[in-house]
Amino acid sequence: MTEPVIAQKSPYAVEVKAGRSYWWCACGKSAKQPFCDGSHKGSAFAPVEYKATADRTVFFCGCKRSKKAPLCDGSHNSL
Ligand code: FES
Ligand code: FES
Q1: For residues 61 and 11, is the Cβ–Cβ distance under 8 A?
Q2: How far is residue 63's CA from residue 4's CA, in Å, rounded to a whole number?
Q3: DSSP string, 7-70
Q4: Which of 32, 34, 33, 28 is nearest to 5 (CA)?
Q5: Is residue 25 in contact with ligand 1, taking CB distance under 6 Å?
Q6: First-to-final CA distance of the chain
Q7: CB atoms within 10 A of CB 41
Q8: How confident is the model at residue 2 (pLDDT cuts 50, 70, 90)?
Q9: Model pLDDT for residues 33-55, shown as the tens digit of each residue
Q10: In this structure, which residue's CA is closest to atom 2 in ligand 2?
């Protein structure tokens, strides 16, 4: 299994809007982090949907190693 690229070793804080869907980049190759820009094509990775249920700040995983993806779970601290 290929490892995802580490986009950055910290989360991305994003203001999300209730009712909107966001597509988190799982492969780490997107130029539009933390979201998918299609760069995963041809790889084993696919983006992960996050559906916002409220207007709030969400911390999306930047290291691509969270066990609670697409959100940061602190795993970046042990990289
Ligand atoms: Fe990374 Fe699409 S570019 S999952
Ligand atoms: Fe990936 Fe925190 S940035 S677990």
Answers
A1: yes
A2: 8
A3: S-SS-EEEEE-TT-EEEE-SSS--SSTTB--STTTTSS---EEEE-SSSEEEEE-SSS--TTTT
A4: 28
A5: yes
A6: 18
A7: 10
A8: confident
A9: 999 999 999 999 999 999 999 99
A10: 72
Kindly give the number of the ligand 2 atom that is closest to the alpha carbon of 68: 4
pLDDT in tens, 24-35: 999 999 999 999
Q: Which ligand is nearest to the CA of 42?
A: 1
* Distance between Cα 74 and ligand 2 center (Å): 5
Binding site membership of 64 for ligand 1 (Cβ less than 6 Å): no
